[in-house]
Amino acid sequence: MTGRTGKYVAFLRISFAQARHARGELYGRVVFFVVILGVFSSLWTAVAEAGMPLAVEPRAMVWYLAITEWIVLSAPPMHFDIQEAVRRGDIVCQLGRPVSWVGAAFAEGLGLLIARAPLLFATACACAAVFTGWVPPLRVLLVIAPLGMAACALVMALWIGIGLLAFWLGDVGPVSWVWQKLMFVFGGLLMPVELYPALVRRIAPFTPFPSVLSRPASLVLHENAGEAAALVLSLAGWGTITAVTLAFLFRRAAAALTVNGG
Amino acid sequence: MQPLNRRLKGDGPIGHLRFAAALFATNLKASLAQRAAFAMQVLFMIVNNLVFFIFWWALMNRVDTIRGWRIGDIQVLFGIVAASVGLGGAVTGGVRHLGRLIDDGELDTLLTQPRPVLPYALGLRMQPSGLGDLLSGVGFIVWSGQVSWREWPTVALAVSGSAIVYVACGVVFFSAAFWLGPIESVARQLWDLLITFSLYPEPLFGGLLRFALFTLLPAAFVGYVPADLVRDPTLGRAAALVSGSAVYLALAIAIFHSGLRRYSSGSRFGTFG
After folding, report:
1. A199, B1, B198, B247 - which has most CB atoms within 10 Å?
2. Are B52 and A184 in contact (CB under 8 A)?
3. Spatial separation of the C-alpha atoms in residues B255 and A18, rounded to whole Å
4. Of A25, A174, A185, the CB nearest to B45
5. Does A191 contact B55 at a Cβ distance shorter than 8 Å?
6. Which residues of B are less than 8 Å from A22 in CB distance?
7. Nearest CB neighbour to A52, from listed B62, B129, B185
8. In the Cβ-directed half-sphere of B191, how many Cα atoms lie within 13 Å?
9. Average pLDDT for residues A73-88, to the nearest whole number?
């Protein structure tokens, strides 16, 4: 391992260790996950009773929701940490480190993600299996797990981008609420994008949200090797766009901080 | 000008209400000092609620009813919960920080003041976004087309009752810090769970879960019971909401004061005003 990457691995390992010790939050997320999946399971059972024409069975919908919720709940909301660092002025000390500040933030987030995501994935599968009495083929879950992890990492990178806005806005809470809800709608968190009105369906492909939520989760609904390969390319594309945007935002933010004197 | 404490005489309920009103007015002035940030929080919260409702709107475009609930009923439910969460955040925005105040020993400054600690701690902060929630909540209720102007006193009662239960639950969850220490994130997740449950129609849930929603995590008193009162006002429903909110408020006060007896000082020095 080179010294260059070793620094980031050290950030990752520290945040992983911290996340493993903060068990209360992790268990809280597990409980939240179980309950929310129970709610959605009841909702889609009721929707099916109401006669809504669904292209898939309600049990597959519950698995779809389990995967989208897993991705959303696993991705650490890094924007709050960045906002706090900017508000307290800690950012000034952090900028002096011989590492990329954005790279370090991403590595810390990955540490949190690696600590949370496996347990939440197991919870997602266990809950969906209990609520539906059905388990998709193992090979499908084995494809979804790494793609879902990549999607979680991209969601986290997008949160870092929202966090960087704290350099200008101070409080990124309002922006993050709207961003989150746009992700829910255009990403198809609560139901597949195909069930939304035409306007939402037309806009969604121009956002990164379907690639991080509905497309990985849709692999449960329609097993398709071609779609999995296309998703890999899509995640790589959006990952590149996000990385370039983060680099640009951070350069502007650092310049603004220097001009304003921190 | 007389000091705040001298002007607000009386320690009874009226005195507490006056004190709460004075805290709210002070917080509002402080928030309005940064007008752009204030307006942004209010506006973005309204947009946030509207975007979230797209899900229900899209879903109910495909089915007429879900276990007897129409889109108008869901708008009333959504409006009541948004308005009560907004009212709670605007008037008692300190609840969200109660766990940290307890765990960091920051109640010291409030304990030395000649005012009751709990109302002071709750009124220390204001969330401007709460006003966005309140406005959008009222907007959803109007949009539902189920409420005439004559029924607005009932809506006010429903929102107030719901907000009391919501805030009381926050006090109970965050007061756990007296016994368990740093529980802020878990308490916050529990509180979010309460809102999540409150936003879904009651007939979706049955059995044990339904029992829990009326007792342990009283989402029923934050969402369904007040929404039922607005949709179909009866004295029985009003009595159920008033008695339910009184019980949860009394429970929250008792738990907070029980915890306060265990509170150990943070030995902090600081300015307060």
Report:
1. B198
2. yes
3. 31
4. A174
5. yes
6. 185
7. B62
8. 27
9. 88
Which residues, numbered 85 to 114 in chain A, qualify as contacts with chain B under a Cβ-Cβ cut-off of 8 Å? none
Per residue in B167-187, pLDDT (tens digit) is 999 999 999 999 888 788 788
- Residue B162 phi, psi (nearest 5): -60, -45
Q: Using a CB–CB cutoff of 8 Å, tell me whether A262 touches chain B.
A: no
Domain hosting B41: range is: 30-260
- Residue that has been written with the tokens 């508000």 in this structure: A87
Task: Establish if B269 belongs to a structural domain.
Answer: no
pTM: 0.84
Tens of pLDDT, residue by residue over B227-262, are 999 999 999 999 999 999 999 999 999 999 999 998
Instruction: Please tell me which of the candidates A32, A185, A196 has its beta carbon nearest to residue B193.
Output: A32
Please check whether residue B273 lies inside any domain of the structure: no
- Which residue of chain A comes nearest to B212, CA vs CA? A35
Q: What is the nearest CA distance from A119 to chain B, expressed in angstroms?
A: 17
Domain boundaries, chain A: 3-260
**Mean pLDDT for the stretch of residues B81-97:** 94
Q: ipTM score of the complex? A: 0.80
Q: How many domains does chain B have?
A: 1
Burial code (b: 16+ CB inside 10 Å, e: under 16) for A79-101 equals bbbbbebbeeeebeeeeeeeebb
Does pLDDT of A150 surpass 50? yes
Q: Residue B228 domain-assigned?
A: yes
Task: Flag whether pLDDT at B191 surpasses 70.
Answer: yes
Residue A34 and residue B193 in contact, taking contact as beta carbons nearer than 8 Å: no
Residue B9 placed within a domain: no
